[in-house]
Amino acid sequence: MDDLAIELKGIDKSFGAVHANKNINLAVRKGTIHGIIGENGAGKSTMMSILYGFYQADRGDIMVNGSKVIIRDPNVAIASGIGMVHQHFMLVDNFTVLENVMLGAEENAILNRGITKARAELKRLEREYALDVNADAVIEELPVGLQQRVEILKALYRSAEILILDEPTGVLTPPEADHLFRILRQLRDQGKTIILITHKLREIMAITDEVSVMRRGEIVATRETATTSVEELAELMVGRRVLLQVEKGDASPTDVKLAVTNLTVRDGRGVVMVDNVSLDVRAGEIVGIAGVAGNGQSELLEAITGIRRAESGTVLLDGEAIGATGEADPALLRKRGLAHVPEDRHHMGLVLSFEENENAILGYHDDPEYLNGPMLNLENIRNSAQESVEKYDIRPPDVRLKTANFSGGNQQKIVLAREMERDPIVLIIGQPTRGVDVGAIEFIHKRIIEMRDAGKAILLVSVELDEIRSLSDRILVMFAGRVVGERTPEATEGELGLLMAGVEEDQEAAQ
Amino acid sequence: MDYFQIALVTLEATIRLSVPLVLAALAGLFSERAGIFDIGLEGKMLAAAFAGGAAAAVYDSAFLGLLAAIAVSVCLALVHGYASITQRGNQIVSGVAINFIAIGATVILGQAWFRQGGRTPQLGGDSRFEAVTLPFVDTLADIPYLGDIYANLISGHFLLTYFAFAMVPFSWWVLYRTRFGLRLRAVGENPGAVDTAGISVTRMRYLAVICCGILCGFAGAYLSMAVAAGFVKGMTAGKGFIALAALIFAKWKPVNVMLACLLFGFLDALAILMQGRPLPLIGEVPVQFMQALPYILTVILLAGFIGKAIPPKAGGVPYVKER
Question: Cα(A179)–Cα(A145) distance, rounded to whole angstroms?
Fold first, then answer.
C-alpha cells in the first residue's frame, strides 16, 4: 500500500513574471484519495497540467509508479496511466457518449471496426464500476452529473490507474456531488489512485485520505485528513487565522423594500426562465436564493435590476413600480436606490481594461460630483476612488492601475465598494465571492452583514450553499425557474440539496 | 423544342453549373468542420483556375494543369492555415486577403506571361479536359426518353464532374465513418477535447485546410480547363461565395451540400434559359433580374427560411491552451 503512484520532485514553472509553481514536492500513495487544496491562483491547476503533459515544467522530475517519466504531451500521461477529469468538461457536445469515449483511442482508421470493441469495453466498465450511462446518448442532452461520468469513463477506457479531478463538484448539485464521492470511494477501493483538486474544505474532509495545501505556488503542508481540521487547513491556505463562521446577530427586519409579484421572464429563445416568482425583501434582512446555476436566478436578478425585460409581473422598489411594469432602466434604478453587484464581474461588473478609478464610478458617472460641466472631474473621481480603496482594503492601493491587474478578490471589492458606498435602499448581490480567495471572502461577508445591520434590504444569489446558509436570514430555493421552497438558515444541507435538485416538490404539494 | 428537350437542356446545364459549387462547398466543409472559417474559397478557386489554365497551356497537358491548380490552391490554403492556426489571426481577414491577392495576382501574372489581357492561351486537345461518353449510349439511344436522359444527363460530362459528385458520398464517409473524420469534427466543436485526448489540434486543422485546398484546386481546374478553354479574369464570378452560402444553407452536411449546390446551379441554368424569353403574364423579364435570382434567393434563404444554422462551435476561434 505504501508504494507511491506519483512523486513530484522539485517541480518549478513560471509563466513570464508569474511564478506559478515553486519547487513542488508531492508524494501520492497508491490506492488513496489525495486532496490538493488551495485558493484560486495558488498553482493547483498548473501543477496538474504539468502532470498531464499540458505544460512542461521548467525544472524538476516526475516519477510515476517509481520510475521517472518525461511527460511531453498528454499522450505520454495517458500511456503512463494518468487520466484527467477537467473542470470544464473536455467533451464534444454533439457527439454521442461512445464517440467521446473513443476520440483519440479509436485503434483503427475506419471507425466501424473499433466501435464494436469500444461498445463492449464500455459495457464492461459500466458493470465493473457501476457507472451507468447510455452509450448512444448525445452529450448535450445529458445532465452535467452524467457528463462528468462520461469524463471518468473516458479516463478509465484509456486504462487510467491514476485519476485527477479538477474542481469536480463546481457544477454539481449536492446529491450529485455525493454520488460522485461514492464513485470515487469505490474506484479507490478497487485500487485506483485519485487526486482531487478543490478549494472546498468540506469536500477535503469528507472524502480524502491525505491532503496537501498549496499557497502562492508552493506546497505548504501535507496532512493525513484524519489528523487535521478545517480550521487548520484554512489557516494553512491563507497563511493566517481566518474566521470561517460568519458572526452575525439576529436580523430585525422592518418594512418591505423590494416586492416581487408573479414575475415571469423568458430568455431570447422564448424559454421561460423565471416562472411566476414572488418574493419580499425587508429592510434589515438578507434573503438568500439557493439553487444550482442555471435555474433562473440570473434571469431573476436581471429582470429586477432592469437589464432584462420581464414578460409579466410587478416589481416594487420601496413601494414604487419598477421592472416589467414601470421604469426598467438600470441607470434610473440606481438613482432610485437599487444597487446591483452583478454575478459575473468580468462580463457585467467591470471593464477590465479601464483603470481602477474609472471602474469605481462606472454607472454613477452622471453624478454631478464627478462632473465638470460635460467633462469628467478626474480629481474628484480619483479622490473618491482612493477613499474606497482604503476603506475596502483593495490591494494594491493604486487607483491608476489597470483593473485586469487586480486579483479576483480585489476586483470583486472594487465592485462591492462602488455599489455599497452609495447608500442604496435595496442591494442585489449575485455570487459575491465567486473566484475570490478565502481571506477576501471573510471581508466581503462581514461587509454584507454590516449593510444589513445598517438597514439595507439585501437579496443575495449564490451557488455556494454554505454561503447562502451562513449569510441569509431567510432562504428561498429556486429550481427550474420557480421558487420551490422557503427555509430558515437552520435547514440542513441535505434538505436544501433535495429542494435544489427539485426532488421534494411533490411532498411540498402534498403537505 | 418540346418541353422534354427544354427540361433536359436545363438539367444538363444545372449539373454543369453545380460542379464548381459542389467542389468548393465540400472544400469549405472540410475546413469549417475543423473550426477554420474560410471565405477565401473564391480566391483559391480563382488562383487554381489561373494556375491550371497557365500550366496546361505551357506544358500542353491537362494533367499537369490540374496538378498546378491543386498545388497553387493548397499553397494559398496553407497561407490561410498559417495565419489562422499558427499565428491565431482573424480568419475572416485572412480569407479576404487571399481573395484580393487572387484577383490581382491572376491578372498581373497573366498579362506579364501571356500578354492577352489577363487571359491564358486557348486550350485544346491534350491540354483541355474532354467530355467522356459512357458506354452503351448507342445501345440505349433508341429507347424513348431514357435514351436521351442517359446520353445527355448521365453520359457526356467531364471526368471532373463525375469526380465532384463522387466526392459527396466519399466526404460523408470520411467525416462520419473514419477516425480522421471523427477527430476533424471534434476539433471544430471542442479542440480542448481533442488536445486532452492526446491529438494535436494544430495538425488536425492543417490537414483539414489542406483538404480544402485540394478540392478548391479541382474546382478551379474545372472552370478553366473543362467548361472553358482557358482562364478569363475574374472567371469564378462569386461562385466561391455562393458555395459558402450553400454550405451554410446545408448546415455543414455533405449530402445537403450537394442538394443546395444543385439548387443554386438550377437557378443559374434557369437564368440562362429565360434570357430573352417572355414569361406568361409578366412579359419579358430583364436578364439582369434573372442573373440576380440566385443571389436574391441566397439572401432570402439565409435570412430565415432554413431554420437555425448552427455552425461548428469552435469555428473562427483560434485554439489557445488554457492555463
Answer: 9
